[in-house]
Amino acid sequence: MTTTAAYDEVFTDVAIVGSGGAGLMAVLHAHAADPDLDITVISKGAVGRSGCTRMVQGGYNAVLSPMDSIANHFDDTLDGGKYLNNQDLAWTLVNDAPKVIHELETKVGCFFDRADDGTIKQKAFAGQSFDRTVHRGDLTGIEIMARLRDQMFRVRPRELEDVRGLDLIRAADGSVAGLTCLNIKNGKFVVVRARVVVIATGGAATMYKIAAPSREKTGDGVAMCVRAGLAVRDMEMMQFHPTGLLVGKARMTGAVLEEGLRGAGAHLLNAHGERYMTKYDPVRMERSTRDVVSRSSYMEIMAGRGTDMGGVLIDISHLGSAEVEKRFPGMVARTRQIGSDLATGPVEVSPTAHFHMGGAIIDPDCRTAVEGLLVAGEDAGGVHGANRLGGNGVAESTVFGCRAGDTAAVVARTREHPEIDIADVERAMAIAAAPLDRPEGILPFELTTRLKNVMWEHCGVVRNAEGLAAAIREIDTLEEQLALVSVPGPAAFNPAWNEALDLQNQLSVAKIIVRTAALRTETRGAHARSDFPERDDSEWLKYLVATQTVDGSIDITERPVEFSRSARPAPEEAEVEQP
Amino acid sequence: MPKEAGAPTGRLQVRIKRSAEESQERFEVERFPAMTVLDVLLAVQREHDPSIGFRFSCRVAMCGTCTLRVDGRSVLACQALVQDHAREIEIAPMAGYPVVRDLVVDMAPFWEQWSRITPYLDPKESLDEPAVVRPDSEEREAIDPSLDCIQCGACYSSCGVSGQHKTFLGPAALTRAMVLINDSRDAAGRTRLDVVSGQDGADRCHLIYGCTGVCPKGLDPARAIRRVRTGRVEDR
Ligand SMILES: Cc1cc2nc3c(=O)[nH]c(=O)nc-3n(C[C@H](O)[C@H](O)[C@H](O)COP(=O)(O)OP(=O)(O)OC[C@H]3O[C@@H](n4cnc5c(N)ncnc54)[C@H](O)[C@@H]3O)c2cc1C
Ligand code: SF4
Ligand code: FES
């Protein structure tokens, strides 16, 4: 029996997909702009308690001090992004960040740490010319998301919790008409008819063997956009955080040990006890930027100088255990939980997939090329260019979430609910139901593991042409195998079925990541090629734009970076990237 | 690398309360070092029964969605380690909430109480700029130890009073109320004080400390409830 026989239908003005920083800020702003709007938030995980905004430890970059300046933050962001950024988006980010911090403090109810004089305290973070990172202990994300969740009791949007967006529904004229969803809790499909859809599902960084983000982030939003024919950019740019915990088979593997450890003087050692950063960046050593440190660790591991578990060691015990416990209580607790102890000895770490810079092409108001469709947060591309600065991620999700909400309110008033073709909707539901309806076949788990392994090995911290070609072949094979996946019932709260749906999206996104990585024959930011170890500004101040054609193939074009707000980098700034 | 002395290996017996079965189901999984209850569930899912229902998101004790009972005690599955000496563990959904499927519960009763205390800031009209509040002020000393609640629901589930009186506000909501009541940026303190002093409020608490014993973030809701009885910093 096919599961698609019946579905629920919801009519709403604005459908917001995702309930992280971008999604819930969009709810607040759409409501503030027009309190009569009917707003629906659709969330695969619990509302306000899923996604990575909740997991932010470090903090939030915003210019608050008169000694700092927007121009400085802008320059740092472009410098970090190796000049691949969309400059209008980066400019919007740095300009709005102080306003959003202001709003979080005076309206949303967040309270960030204070300096002794009672004003908001700002701390140092890597890659910045000024101490501008606002935080609440090392649990900043909980403060932001818990308070945003509280706001939902004031605004009262329709919450479709444990409901995952499947695919966009397009009207005959190509504009967006809503989306198909699956109610995970009861296994029923839901058709959400909306005047405006905001996509804010938080990117795709979980598709690596070692990865930091929360479970839900399987590229769903980007895959939905791609399948709807929308152009995406910078997809080859996947950030790896240098110090993810290695805990063997435990799910904790990949969880981040915070950047502050390296700042405070932690050493990184290979299995022979050598401080290998002396070879890769003798000046900045462990304090070098994320991309450089991740790459250096990866090279050591690949050269056979890693630990048995395939990692390196971080050691900060020379500061004395009392000092380490005082400064990094959360991190010490995290390591003690897994049977090691940061306060007294080395801990095994590895680079871990952290954040996807790539995503849908948007304008500063979050509009896309499809009428009625907006994208915000990690699902959008261009803000960070080739590498994101720590502290600019949560700034991006909240800044662009606000803008998406503002825009949604305007657009919703100009659109009717378009007619939809029910045959299209039923086709989308049949595809989603296939793994459950297929009487026999293979389980999805093994395929997911294979995808994570191949992405790690061949499209990870350092890449080369041969490996990327192998990755393209394996992903094609996995796509064929996906058609054989069968999961046992029931339909309600079925993790295996959801894994199959996740895999489909991960493959849609992975396909583009490997192809764009193969095309970029240079090393820039998070994208490192062992066969093209240098940054090449004469050839590659260009970004790659990918679209999926009707037959499923990927079309990629190069576009020159528009230097709309800054000069091109001077030749001496184009330092040789250390592969 | 220091080798963990007697790192547990071998098999672990797992008993799981399933919603479709009358009794518990038994499984056996291979142990590995630093194995959490979440790892146990993932192993059961992959090796035995892919349809088993449970919830998690962050796996680092930040989202608060993986709460369940292990051998009768409410814990975060991602934080609770399988003890070295354990041969067998028993996993059940949290008490006090309707079961959606297997280990997944409906948190509605928790949020219903949470929403009653007006959980969001009602900013004073004068709050144009981020407030200047010294970290050593009396206000922050009252509030700071009660921050970082992840709304995991464990305290509510373990509270004897909440279990019996469905209208009791419960430890988490009272903690949140205490924070807001003492926040000098907020204008709704008096209304909230009325709610927490009403019949469903702080006076119902019998100070059994079930909440404080179980909070995975080390908060002390019982202390916050005592604190809320003493009124506002601002009024003193
Ligand atoms: C461990 C960690 C630490 C970090 N620390 C920092 C930091 O210190 N500073 C910083 O600036 N940045 C940090 N970041 C990055 C930052 O978290 C992200 O940039 C940002 O939070 C992304 O926000 P978002 O709203 O786009 O997505 P998220 O907050 O990730 O939210 C995604 C939402 O989408 C939902 N969802 C997913 N798929 C679907 C679907 N199919 N249907 C419906 N809903 C769906 C999820 O349930 C979730 O609610 C960190 C990231 C990680 C992983
Ligand atoms: S107070 Fe503690 S136990 Fe209660 S909901 Fe918050 S984090 Fe969970
Ligand atoms: S999975 Fe988030 S708290 Fe356990």
Describe, in plain words, how this protein is organized in 3D:
Chain A is α+β, with helices and mostly antiparallel strands and 579 residues long. In chain A, 36% of the residues lie in helices and 17% in strands. Chain A contains 16 helices and 18 strands. In chain A, the strands form four sheets. In chain A, strands 1, 2, 6, 7, 8, 9 and 16 form a seven-stranded mixed sheet that branches. Chain A has a four-stranded antiparallel sheet with strand order 15-10-17-18, with helices on one face. Chain A has a four-stranded antiparallel sheet with strand order 11-14-13-12. In chain A, β17 (542-548) and β18 form a beta hairpin. The longest helix of chain A is centred in the last third of the chain and has 25 residues, at 495-519. Chain A is globular. The model of chain A has no long low-confidence stretch (mean pLDDT 94). Chain B is α+β, with helices and mostly antiparallel strands and 236 residues long. Chain B contains nine helices and seven strands, in the order ββαβββββαααααααα. Classes of the chains: A alpha+beta (579), B alpha+beta (236). FE2/S2 (inorganic) cluster (FES) is lined by residues 56-59, 61-66, 76-78 of chain B.
What keyword list fits this structure?
heterodimer; A: 579 residues; alpha+beta; Flavocytochrome C3, Chain A, domain 1; Methane Monooxygenase Hydroxylase, Chain G, domain 1; 7-stranded mixed sheet; 4-stranded antiparallel sheet; 16 helices; 18 strands; 36% helix; globular; B: 236 residues; Ubiquitin-like (UB roll); Fumarate Reductase Iron-sulfur Protein, Chain B, domain 2; 2 domains; 5-stranded mixed sheet; two-stranded antiparallel ribbon; 30% helix; 14% strand; binds flavin-adenine dinucleotide; binds iron/sulfur cluster; binds FE2/S2 (inorganic) cluster
